[in-house]
């Protein structure tokens, strides 16, 4: 013990800890006579210092024995001077960290353990860390213990209850991505950590955010590994403690009063947090003004982290920071002007100021220093014209967001001038409507707004600045009234002004300010009365003798009748007990009737809109309006005038709206129905018929209405299916539908068929018999009999077979092209009757299809062959007819030839298809009876075309003949085909040159198939050899046991030198005695097998202490073989090594499954199946394909890829 004041040695303590151990820590508590120490044996001792009669003594007491867990870090709770009276200080708390847990004990008044906390799983080399700190929380200050081992910091709050009990409460953890080797508090909210890479991290505890990272590599931190390994005393420490000691640096880091000292190999370094002002100054020196202002604002708002040096109550702190921010703003502005590029493009200068000036404006407004913004700052920036413009434009966003509502007169004047000069009038308008205009030059603003058509701004200035709500309407009416009066169409700008006028009137009548806000409450009634008085004026202020009465209402009606009436309707909703407002309401209605009724300037839609509006008002329960009922009669006669064919749909729609709002319920319905029928208003008739439940007459309305004819089917279906209609009503509708069924079928056959199928199944035969038009009947039957899914799929019609045959007869007469598709899709006709029908009309393709369906393949072939001969004859002998040798004649002949060739190809395709799928079910003689006549026919006409036809036609016929040979070779043997060709009398006379192409084609096919067979056989042999070689290598691979003892009995596999004993070694490396494995019943397989199959006892069970499934999967993937070895030992004089005789290599069940799955990964398409398909033929005959001429080479080879390679 040393006296640091004079450097004298006070005492030497020899018995404080056991000899042979090194001291790791020694620390004093708040009591200067009490200290604790920790040695390399993991024990903790309490040292009590005494001085009696001038003699110094020390008593040592063991607090924790290293035999119960090695403690490697201790930390007593040291109380700062401000908290000396804290009740927790009486307990002298001590935190200890062992390699497995944390302990908190109290040394006073008696030794007691208050808390034990085990670690979570971590790296064994991680260093435990402890750090105490008094932390304020909820108006109290209590100590918090921070501890960690690895990458997670835990916090424990320690508090004393009134009963004297100490409670330890776990708080939120801090998760990092590094291994911590040092942990220190620098204040109650901030920790400083050092990781294993010597990176210092400053962490804010409440937000768990890493504020700064610093590299300590240059510090060359001193580690305490020598002490932890106790090298001075012989290294008598555990391996775990020595491993921790590799990263231990406890004695190299010390923290006190906001400072942390780090000991390096050559120097000591002090770390401390900068004060808030130093942090700002640091950014200022680096010219990071934006970041400095942002940091200062966080100090102002109290959101900054790790704040040091900012004291006082919140108001005082804000005032101090605000003064600093004002200085920053001026320095920033001066820096911006100084760094402004003097030369270059104007865009560069603009971008320079756009990045800065909005920031200055924003912070001035945040500090609520508009005086600073408009006086000093603006004066400073106005020296540069570009900066001045950017400053004025940056005000817009704050004005629109209502953060800046007042501008000084010079600023407003400059703002108007700038936007006017740059042409950004829309931006100027957005600003004006958000500003307080009481201190503006109203005349100047109004003049600028009117000249640039800023109507919203003009209205706002008149309303807010002068409480004048009438002058804006007069100005807008003066623009839109002349073109409306003259009948000229409005321009886009005039339409926009008219719409603004309507919205403005609506806002005034509803008590809303335009374009935003509300009218002052004491002005709402006054403004509403002023607007009404203005609208009902008899004449305008500068009227002429030609002006019509009520010009303002008349102009609004001409501009947009519907929207103006909507404005009035919304206004009338608010009229309850206001007598004055009700008088205005009646007056407005009278003027509307006076202006619009009997006035040819308004369309029926406009007049109807007026009366619809009036009908809705009169239908209200609290209605006070009076309207002459005769006016409705006049409107009714006007809308239903039969002599006026113009705007028919528009007049009908208007009258329908009147009916729906109940405006004409007092009228005679018979008279209204008569007028509607006369005017052909069928929707009106429908409305009246439906009201009286006369649903059958509604069908007549749909049929007469050309615009809604197609909707009749949906109406009928809904009426007959939906509930709510009586049976009698549905019967009348059914009768009406049957009465007009022919007309409905002519309108839409498909929907009519659905209607009949769903509702008139029993009457289907009657409906069909009444249809006289064959074409209409065919169309209806096609829709009625087509296959359906869903609701109609199970519906059956009476005499359905006869209907299908009737449709077939109609198709044969009217639409032959649809016959074949009908026969293929329909299954309800009778086969014999269908054959008679198509035979009667000589449709050979359909007849052949039916004969084939019947099973008469020969008959179908005969019909198709006859058709083919006819088309070939037409092609062959049609070219002999005389044709004019002109350009048109030659072109016509060429077109005819192309058409004939096309029909021949189609006919040949049909007959080949027939022969192809018929041959699969026929004997050899029957096949030859099909194919040989076809071949003879083609060869005959090939000779004819060669003699009489063109070369192109001959070439096409030759290719078609080759096609026949190619197809028939699949079912007829090649020798039979060649023999049949040679038996032909023409070729039998020696003209073999004519069939040279056929013979060469067959030889090419043989050459191709021979090459394919040889290549495929070679590939199969190669694959088989490759697979067997790999399998053989896998199962014969030598095995190396992991240990030289049995894993069951744990004895050496050579238990006795002179014994004969079998051992079994598995691919996983485990070794067993045969008897041991047999006792554990690890064999499997049938009892009849000479050699049972074995499974590894350790891998196939959980006896080994590991997860059985994971070990099983692991070892099954290593190898596929188990080896059974017999060990024969000779006498004592023999060689020490055993002799191993291989007996067998087998696979267990799981290994076999793994091997099959492994093989399937490398298995391509089955080549055996390819060979079997190639060699397969009907009746054990050879399949031959004739290949085109490009394969007629002797050196023909297949380009095939090699098999996949498997890595060992």
TrEMBL record:
MF terms (GO), sorted A to Z: zinc ion binding
PROSITE patterns to which the protein is assigned, alphabetical: CHCR, ZF_RING_2
InterPro entries for this protein: Clathrin_H-chain/VPS_repeat (IPR000547), Vps41/Vps8 (IPR045111), Vps8_central_dom (IPR025941), WD40_repeat_dom_sf (IPR036322), Znf_RING (IPR001841), Znf_RING_Vps8 (IPR056939)
Any one of the GO BP annotations: protein targeting to vacuole
UniProt keyword annotation of Nucleotide-binding present: no
Annotated SMART domains: RING (SM00184)
A single cellular component GO annotation: late endosome
Highest taxon above the source species: Eukaryota
Domain (RING-type): residue spans on this chain: 1046-1100
Coiled-coil blocks: none
CHCR repeat intervals: 755-916
UniProt keyword terms in alphabetical order: Metal-binding, Protein transport, Transport, Zinc, Zinc-finger
Keyword Cytoplasm: no
PANTHER family xrefs: VACUOLAR PROTEIN SORTING VPS41, VACUOLAR PROTEIN SORTING-ASSOCIATED PROTEIN 8 HOMOLOG
Name of the protein this chain belongs to: Vacuolar protein sorting-associated protein 8 homolog
């Amino acid at each position: 013990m040393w006296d640091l004041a004079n450097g004298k040695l006070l005492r030497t303590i020899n018995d404080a800890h056991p000899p042979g151990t090194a001291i790791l820590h020694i620390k004093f508590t708040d009591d200067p006579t009490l200290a604790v120490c920790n040695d390399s044996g993991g024990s903790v001792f309490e040292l009590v210092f005494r001085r009696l009669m001038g003699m110094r003594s020390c008593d040592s007491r063991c607090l924790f024995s290293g035999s119960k867990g090695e403690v490697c870090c201790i930390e007593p709770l040291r109380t700062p001077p401000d908290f000396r009276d804290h009740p927790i200080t009486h307990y002298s708390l001590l935190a200890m960290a062992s390699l497995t847990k944390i302990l908190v004990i109290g040394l006073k008044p008696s030794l007691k353990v208050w808390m034990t906390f085990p670690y979570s799983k971590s790296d064994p080399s991680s260093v435990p860390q402890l750090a105490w700190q008094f932390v304020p929380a909820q108006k109290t200050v209590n100590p918090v213990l921070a501890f960690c081992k690895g990458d997670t910091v835990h916090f424990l709050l320690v508090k004393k209850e009134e009963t004297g009990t100490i409670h330890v409460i776990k708080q939120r953890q801090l998760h990092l991505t590094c291994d911590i080797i040092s942990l220190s508090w620098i204040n109650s909210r901030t920790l400083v950590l050092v990781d294993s890479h010597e990176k210092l991290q400053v962490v804010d505890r409440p937000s768990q955010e890493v504020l700064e990272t610093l590299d300590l590599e240059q510090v060359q931190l001193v580690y305490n590994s020598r002490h932890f390994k106790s090298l001075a005393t012989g290294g008598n420490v555990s391996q775990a403690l020595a491993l921790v000691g590799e990263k231990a640096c406890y004695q190299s880091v010390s923290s006190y009063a906001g400072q942390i000292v780090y000991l390096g190999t050559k120097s000591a370094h002090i770390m401390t947090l900068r004060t808030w002002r130093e942090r700002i100054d640091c950014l200022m020196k680096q010219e990071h003004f934006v970041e400095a202002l942002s940091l200062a604002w966080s100090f102002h708002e109290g959101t900054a982290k790790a704040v040091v040096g900012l004291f006082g109550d919140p108001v005082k702190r804000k005032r101090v920071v605000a003064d600093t921010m004002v200085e920053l703003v001026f320095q920033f502005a001066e820096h911006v002007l100084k760094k402004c590029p003097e030369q270059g493009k104007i865009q560069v200068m603009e971008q320079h100021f756009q990045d800065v000036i909005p920031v200055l404006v924003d912070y001035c407004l945040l500090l609520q220093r508009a005086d600073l913004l408009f006086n000093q700052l603006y004066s400073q920036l106005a020296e540069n014209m570009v900066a001045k413009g950017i400053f004025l434009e940056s005000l817009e966003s704050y004005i629109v967001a209502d953060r800046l509502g007042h501008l000084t007169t010079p600023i407003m004047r400059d703002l108007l001038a700038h936007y006017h000069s740059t042409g950004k009038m829309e931006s100027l308008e957005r600003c004006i409507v958000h500003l307080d205009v009481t201190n503006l030059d109203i005349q100047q603003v109004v003049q600028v707004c009117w000249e640039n058509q800023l109507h919203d701004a003009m209205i706002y200035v008149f309303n807010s600045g002068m409480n004048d709500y009438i002058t804006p309407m007069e100005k807008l009416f003066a623009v839109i009234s002349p073109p409306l009066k003259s009948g000229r169409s409005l321009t886009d700008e005039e339409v926009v002004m008219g719409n603004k006028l309507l919205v403005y009137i609506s806002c005034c009548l509803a008590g809303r300010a335009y374009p935003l806000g509300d009218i002052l409450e004491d002005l709402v009634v006054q403004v509403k009365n002023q607007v009404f008085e203005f609208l009902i004026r008899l004449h305008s202020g500068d009227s002429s003798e030609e002006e019509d009465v009520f010009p303002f209402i008349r102009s609004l009606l001409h501009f947009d009748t519907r929207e103006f009436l909507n404005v009035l309707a919304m206004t009338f909703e608010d009229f309850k007990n206001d007598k004055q407002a009700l008088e205005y309401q009646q007056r407005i209605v009278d003027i509307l009737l006076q202006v619009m009724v009997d006035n040819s300037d308004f369309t029926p839609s406009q007049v109807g809109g007026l009366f619809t509006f009036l009908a809705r008002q009169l239908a209200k329960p609290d209605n006070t309006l009076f309207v002459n009922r005769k006016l409705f009669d006049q409107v009714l006669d006007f809308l239903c005038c039969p002599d006026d064919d113009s705007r028919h749909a528009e007049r009908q729609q208007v009258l329908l709206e009147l009916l729906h709002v109940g405006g004409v319920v007092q009228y005679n319905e018979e008279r209204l129905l008569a007028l509607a029928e006369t005017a052909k208003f069928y929707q009106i008739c429908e409305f009246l018929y439906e009201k009286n439940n006369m649903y059958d007459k509604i069908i007549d309305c749909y049929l007469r209405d050309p615009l809604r004819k197609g909707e009749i089917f949906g109406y009928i279906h809904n009426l007959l299916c939906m509930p709510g209609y009586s049976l009698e009503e549905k019967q009348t509708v059914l009768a009406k539908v049957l009465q007009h069924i022919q007309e409905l079928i002519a309108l839409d056959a498909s929907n009519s068929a659905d209607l009949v199928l769903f509702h008139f199944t029993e009457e289907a035969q009657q409906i069909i018999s009444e249809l006289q038009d064959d074409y209409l009947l065919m169309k209806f039957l096609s829709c009625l009999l087509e296959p359906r899914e869903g609701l109609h799929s199970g519906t059956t019609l009476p005499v359905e077979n006869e209907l299908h045959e009737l449709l077939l007869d109609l198709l044969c007469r009217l639409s032959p092209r649809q016959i074949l598709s009908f026969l293929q899709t329909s299954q309800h006709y009778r086969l014999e009757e269908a054959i008679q029908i198509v035979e009667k009309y000589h449709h050979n393709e359909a007849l052949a299809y039916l004969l084939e369906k019947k099973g008469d393949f020969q008959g179908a072939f005969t019909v198709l062959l006859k058709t083919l001969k006819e088309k070939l004859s037409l092609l062959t002998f049609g070219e002999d007819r005389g044709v004019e040798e002109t350009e048109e004649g030659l072109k016509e002949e060429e077109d005819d030839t192309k058409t004939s060739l096309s029909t021949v190809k189609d006919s040949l395709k049909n007959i080949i298809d027939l022969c192809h799928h018929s041959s699969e079910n026929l004997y050899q003689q029957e096949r030859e009876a099909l194919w040989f006549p076809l071949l003879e026919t083609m060869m005959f006409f090939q000779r004819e075309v060669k003699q009489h036809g063109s070369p192109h036609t001959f070439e096409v016929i030759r290719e078609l003949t080759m096609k026949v040979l190619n197809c028939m070779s699949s079912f007829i043997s090649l020798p039979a085909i060649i023999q049949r060709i040679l038996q032909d009398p023409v070729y039998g006379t020696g003209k073999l040159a004519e069939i040279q192409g056929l013979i060469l084609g067959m030889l090419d096919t043989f050459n191709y198939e021979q090459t394919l067979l040889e290549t495929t056989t070679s590939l199969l042999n190669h694959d088989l050899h490759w697979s067997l070689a790999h399998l053989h290598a896998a199962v014969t691979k030598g095995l190396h046991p992991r240990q030289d003892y049995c894993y069951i009995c744990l004895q050496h596999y050579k238990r006795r030198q002179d014994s004969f004993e079998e051992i079994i070694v598995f691919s996983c490396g485990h070794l067993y005695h045969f008897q041991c494995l047999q006792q554990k019943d690890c064999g499997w397989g049938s009892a009849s097998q000479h050699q049972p199959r074995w499974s590894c006892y350790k891998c196939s069970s959980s006896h080994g202490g590991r997860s059985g499934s994971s070990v099983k999967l692991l070892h099954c993937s290593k190898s596929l073989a188990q080896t059974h070895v017999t060990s024969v030992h000779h006498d004592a004089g023999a060689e020490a090594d055993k002799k191993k005789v291989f007996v067998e290599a087998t696979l267990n069940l799981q290994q076999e499954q793994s091997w099959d799955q492994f093989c399937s990964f490398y298995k391509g398409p089955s080549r055996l199946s390819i060979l079997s398909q190639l060699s397969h033929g009907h009746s054990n005959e050879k399949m031959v394909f004739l290949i085109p001429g490009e394969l007629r080479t002797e050196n023909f080879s297949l380009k095939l890829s090699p098999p996949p390679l498997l890595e060992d």
